[in-house]
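User: My advisor asked me to double-check a structure prediction for DDE Tnp4 domain-containing protein before group meeting. I don't want to rely on an old file, so could you generate it fresh from this sequence?
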Amino acid sequence: MVDEYFDEFDVERIPKRYIRNIEDPFEKYNDNTFLKRYRFPKLIVMDQLLNLLGINYANNRGLPIPPILQLLTTLRFYATANFQTVCGDLRGIDQSTVSRIIKRVSHEIASRFRDHVKFPQTEAEWSVIRQQFFEIAGMPGVGGCIDCTHIKIQNPGGINGEVFRNRKGWFSLNVQLVCGPLMEIHNLVVRWPGSYHDSFIFNASHACAVYSNNNHNLILLGDNGYACKPYIFTPLLNPVTNAEKNYNKAHIKTRNIVERVFGVWKRKFPCLRRGLANSPNTIISIIVACAVLYNISLKLRLPDFAVEDETVEEVNNFLNDENREIIGAAARRAYIIRHFT
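Assistant: Sure, here is a fresh prediction for DDE Tnp4 domain-containing protein from the sequence you gave:
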């Protein structure tokens, strides 16, 4: 009866709205604009980055957003850290959908962490690393440079919210990074709140086990935020002799590479510099994903990005008593006598 009733009228079916039919960024932007907006060239996005995702749809039910568009949405967020900007690019897709895309894609990329961020595995590989570090400033035996950087986050709230407040008074994650001589990231630790000290994070990390075992006769270079130990050398606070001064100069010049890594990493992905307001688990995935993408970019020798006029206040956690680790201080003194006198 209902069908017969409506058959008497000329009822026009309302067409389904296909909100996914938006402009193709590959066609819309030239190569330079595309690189600036998405941080990677078109060919690299299609041929390599898309393979990092495990997103597949068996059919077109519900008009799912294509994986390539999800990837570009996430890369655009990494370059801006602004949901409104990303939503403006994707007209017809609301912020909640964009948030889910960023969460999903970041997790997918972060899951490839062990494939792209790892220590050398063999003695031959470590030997190359030591030689490359030696060529920087003549410090033998160096196998890495370490430091921490604070990534600004929104107050997570809850009973543990204040644990994330760092010494400067803002909320952050204290992220540890160990890099190699070519500015590659070898190790990343993203789980400690901003109130935790650099030295504590290192002592609880896999990097500590790698260097303290000393199977490859390695030295890790750190600033005075770390205790001096036989496997992690810090600068002398008050060098007196020429040997001590030469050691400090070589140490500062060699360890400067980790500072450069932080700078390039945060210029490549400004979301790390401007701060993240996502959920805690998503923030961790974003930071890890940015490390994976950084190493891929470095391997492909993609261009760096100019720094914007934006000041970020760093948090320094220095240990003032350089003599608290007697064994480490003795090992450093012997090293200075052996190599810098």
